[in-house]
Write a structure and sequence with these properties.
2 copies of one chain form a homodimer. By secondary structure, chain A is mainly α. Helix content of chain A is 85%, strand content 0%.
């Protein structure tokens, strides 16, 4: 057996182990004690609402996937009449496999969290420790399934087709689904959240999660379809994309130079998953411990394990010089990810100056909440941008010298270094997903506790769990944004590899493309257009939320005035939750399609106008402005959210003060920033990079310039 | 006499003509009838306030300029011990000349507008036509002086030193002063504006421009120092930079290939000025005509004249093939400038969907004003980004083939094409300045009319003049942002030319640098860091406004409660205007310094870390994200401003409605966006490009990578 085969086998084994643990946790969560009938009923509404939306969304997306499947079959990797039809078939199959696995990841997540939410509410009656275990394990079900699924998918595609290019098709399938899932879920959740707050809290003066509010269930459904299903698909896709980029580059080097870089990429991926599994198993709160510590300690355990295990495994493959370079690249990724996370955390931590200062500005009025929030969030982009820039530079320079001894080009090795740093950064992706899914579970649990009248002690416990989730998210978010940045830079390298392979097969000679010079006006043309795309994309999503919220607000008003006994809280009278869920859902689907199409269309348009060089510039412009906007919007949302909470904790006049009213405006603005537009941009960038890579041969053949 | 000498002589002649007309207009404005004593008194306050601030600002900046002068003397263009000390002396002198001329441009503008404002108020008593003439000619004084000054400065430096590199020093002097003037003026004006509105209008319920408001004079002073002095310095600098970029490239080609491109650059510049002069002379309102038409028609006259005259002059220099290419590049600049302006106008026009839709969203609350405003402004970046991308690509490709016949490199000719397009776009700069200065004059006139009790008819007239100014600004702004974009792309070309010349003189051989490859991690390192700079820069300015407004609000409160009879409007009791002016001024100076230093420092840091390649990426990252943010913030400000005005015109409930309150929040957020951060970014980009060019030899010698 070759080293590659062993690595593939081990990968599949660890992925299966991960599925097994996921199933064990699911059974455990399901076995937890039942809740009271009110909660059961409401949890049932949430579950069926989430499933209805997913079904609707997936059925629309299956049409899209079918169209793309046929297009790939005809045109990619090269038009069917020019190349080997079998490759087109394989590529199409890989694409389909990617979409299906990504959809399943979302579905598993929703299934797990819609059970865990009610169990967590019930467990909170006993103790915060019990509630934590249920919430955390509920999230872990999804974390393990997502990462296991991505690893097994990548390993299977690679093994079956023996061609890393097919991975780009697989990854494109995953990310095109993630784009819609993330954007659609993001529009859904913020439509519901904003409308529920706007009419319920502000206009009618109802408390949070009041069951008389017709949008309250839609809000909880939104948490599941946006934060869980959408985010699951998104991180599935990020992980696949980072592996695909690394494997395309490594296998191209391995083929040409007879080296062994591909097995090490798989090893790093499987060690990351294994470390996450162990980290998850070790997440426990001590007696009266605090949940933030428990979450962070499992993250640090994972990081430590990853660093230690990779140190050992790398030694199996390489001599001393290469060892330090490859291991160094992955260590850079891991370290810089943590640094970005911690630096970003500064801007959203309520003990630090930014949050306090925005809260204090709010005393002057909402305009100042916005101005100071925007300003601090602009500042907050700096550490991450520098972090990504430095880690790309350092990992490239570290691996570049390997080229000499194996007779490869220094660009290839440099890009391999960047892609390994991205894999290192995403090693803790299992933890990230688990933590991210934990948030909506405890958030839902809080809602259920409120609606099921479980009392103030339970509410206080779920609140504490919720706030721990928010804090931890800030750090893990640093990893995911950083990894996305590095992955797309590596994908630019993969793009060049693909272009040159396609050019060779089209008889255009070797080294058809040798770089993207900024002084070439075709490159800067692509750069400028590419930079505008994330702005337009997020604008379309936010306008979608705005429009959709309008429809929902009308519906809430209608129910409030026409349903008798609702206003007075007459027992047995419930609003028509399903109407609100259906409005949020169909609106989200209607609004997400144009944004997705625009992204794909612009990429193709730039490619057909300027050819592969324009696409190179386009990708880089997209990365740069996408990172900037994603960081800005995510951090602004977190900053405003925490400023509001800081005031609600009794500072600067507390709830109901002028500062609080202004802070609520900031928080509402921040909602679509951080939960709709910001995180969708990551996926948008990845989709664009992958489309570009797999369609490269078309742009070589057909372009105006 | 050579063609170049003739072109230089003609340039100087037209520039002198421009000064002469400027002086004629100034005398004419001064001779207009006197106003009533109250207005005289208040106008006196405004004048002395503006002059005090300028004096203070310039005295601080003279220290900065002195330090830079010495640094240039020692280190640039090459360290004094390595090269010819005389070049260092020339460079330092050029730098100083640039700062002085730029400062004078600002000073002339303020002198003109602080006389024209009161005359305009008085003229409005007679008719709107008379008021228009005074306002417009007042603005034209500055327009003609600024453009005349920049042309005479460039021609003089070029003639005396015979070395285009010195122009970069001259341009750096102009732009480094503009950076501080624009940022300082921007902080001043918004501090005063926001504080006056916040306490005066919102809290105390005083009408706009009520003389009891202690900040009311500071607000008017702000219009002069921000919009007039700052903007004058800024456009002076843009014009110089675009000429410098074109001349560095053209003279490098002329020297190497014995061609005649430099004279044509001067010809285009002087024809632009001449056309503007004629356009200004023809600006008349017909009987009962409308001021928007008058302003636009003079802009179109200028464009038509420029297109016609350059068509003739170009024929003198070139044969048919080259003729169409050079003339084509300048025509592309002119046309695309207009297209960008018109497309951008769509997003801020109150008869179009964006403004109406933001106004309608405001009914739901301030958060929706912000969300929809941010979304539309993100969308608004697309036409300009595509316009700049296409005009750069088209002008490059158009001029590239000339290279073959004259034995130059295609990059050089392509970059020449881009720089000629930028010159074409800035041909109407005289009109832009005139229109931009017209705005504050009529705005001030309105304030004086209010404070001097000139009655409702006069107010209605000045309001109409004011609103015409805002509409026209949207179109001319398209030109200035577009030209800035093209200029900095051309400066990237100039940067490479400079690096290669420096490398040659350092004995590093010819073609030391042959491009900036995006796959080179040093380039992408620069790109990512460069992209973060405009965000950080604007954040620092906006936080400066926020902090400074806080100080001012406290002062207004203090005066309101301690000055007896002020509240009641007792005759003869006036607030202490000078205290507010002094707070706005010293605060602005305090807050602008760190932002300016950060910009310069980061450029040097990236250069010393990554060398010239990192700087190439840094410049491009800076351009891309700078354009994006500048467009976003400028358009958002205009959009919110007009949405508020749309509601105030009686739509959606009019003044005092919920929608209006929300729209006021949007307008307040938009103020520092459009008048502090947005327009300063243009200057920031130019400064960075110029520093990079003149310090290139240092980064060749000293850098880590």
């Amino acid at each position: 057996m070759t080293a590659l085969q062993i690595a593939l086998l081990c990968s599949i084994f660890v992925a299966l182990l991960s599925f097994f643990l996921s199933a064990v946790f699911y059974r455990w969560v399901k076995k937890q004690p039942h809740s009271n009938p009110t909660i059961e009923k409401i949890a049932g509404f949430i579950k069926s609402g989430a499933n209805t939306f997913l079904k609707k969304e997936y059925s629309i997306l299956s049409i899209f996937a079918a169209v793309v499947f046929i297009l790939i079959l005809i045109f990619l990797p090269v038009p069917i009449w020019k190349g080997n039809p079998l490759s087109n078939f394989f590529m199409a199959i890989s694409y389909l496999f990617g979409t299906v696995l990504s959809a399943i990841a979302g579905k598993i997540g929703v299934t797990a969290t819609t059970v865990a939410n009610k169990k967590c509410a019930e467990a909170a009656k006993k103790s915060i420790n019990d509630a934590f275990s249920v919430g955390y394990r509920g999230g872990a079900i999804m974390g393990m399934a997502v990462v296991g699924g991505s690893l097994i998918g990548v390993a299977a595609i690679f093994w079956i087709f023996g061609d890393a290019t097919m991975l780009l098709g697989f990854s494109f399938g995953a990310s095109s689904l993630a784009l819609f899932a993330k954007a659609g879920g993001g529009i859904f959740t913020k439509t519901a959240d904003i409308s529920a707050d706007l009419v319920g809290k502000v206009e009618l003066g109802l408390p949070e999660d009041d069951p008389r509010n017709p949008a309250v269930i839609a809000d909880n459904v939104g948490d599941n379809v946006g934060d869980v299903a959408g985010m699951g698909a998104d991180l599935f896709d990020s992980n696949v994309a980072s592996l695909a980029a690394a494997l395309v580059i490594s296998s191209s080097i391995d083929t040409a130079c007879n080296t062994n870089f591909t097995p090490i990429v798989f090893c790093y991926a499987l060690i990351g998953l294994l470390s996450s599994l162990i980290g998850i198993l070790f997440a426990r709160m001590g007696k009266n411990g605090n949940p933030t510590k428990a979450l962070n300690s499992s993250t640090y355990t994972t990081m430590g394990l990853f660093a230690a295990l990779t140190a050992i495994v790398t030694a199996v493959f390489f001599n001393e010089d290469v060892y330090w370079r490859i291991y160094g690249a992955s260590a850079i990724g891991l370290t810089v990810g943590a640094v970005i996370g911690i630096a970003t955390d500064y801007f959203t931590d309520d003990r630090r100056r930014p949050v306090k200062s925005v809260a204090s500005s709010s005393q002057k009025g909402a305009a100042f909440t916005i101005i100071s929030g925007v300003s601090y969030s602009y500042l907050s982009t700096l550490p991450a941008m520098i972090g990504i820039a430095i880690s790309a530079l350092a990992s490239y320079k570290l691996c570049e010298p390997i080229a000499e001894s194996i007779n490869a080009t220094s660009v290839e090795l440099g890009m391999l270094g960047i892609s390994i740093a991205a894999v290192g950064m995403l090693s803790i992706v299992g933890m990230i997903v688990a933590n991210d899914a934990y948030g909506p579970i405890v958030d839902n649990a809080r809602g259920l506790a409120e609606m099921g009248n479980l009392g103030d002690v339970v509410l206080e416990r779920t609140d504490r769990l919720d706030s721990a989730g928010n804090t931890v998210k800030a750090i893990t978010k640093g990893f995911s944004i950083g990894a996305a940045g590095l992955t797309v830079i590596a994908l630019l390298g993969a793009f060049m590899t693909e272009v040159n392979e396609a050019a060779l097969s089209l008889g255009l000679g070797a080294n058809f493309l040798n770089g993207f010079d900024l002084l070439d006006p075709i490159v800067s043309f692509g750069l400028l257009v590419g930079a505008a795309v994330p702005a337009v994309f997020s604008a379309m999503l936010m306008l979608g939320v705005d429009k959709n919220a309008q429809r929902m607000v009308d519906e809430i008003h209608r129910q409030w005035t026409t349903i008798k006994g609702l206003k007075e809280g007459k027992p047995g009278v419930l609003p028509k939750y399903d109407r609100c869920i259906s409005i949020a859902g169909s609106g989200a689907i209607k609004e997400l399609v144009p944004a997705g199409i625009m992204t794909i269309f612009t990429t193709l348009a730039v490619g057909f106008v300027g050819g592969v060089k324009a696409i190179g510039g386009f990708l880089m412009g997209n990365i740069v402005s996408g990172l900037l906007l994603a960081l800005f919007m995510s951090n602004a949302g977190g900053l405003w959210d925490n400023s509001k909470k800081y005031i609600e904790a009794g500072n600067l006049g507390g709830k109901g003060s002028k500062a609080h009213k202004s802070a609520v405006v900031g928080d509402t603005v921040g909602d679509p920033f951080k939960d709709t537009a910001g995180p969708s941009i990551n996926t948008q960038i990845t989709v664009v990079s992958l489309i570009a890579s797999i369609t490269s041969s078309l742009f070589i053949t057909i372009s105006i310039f």
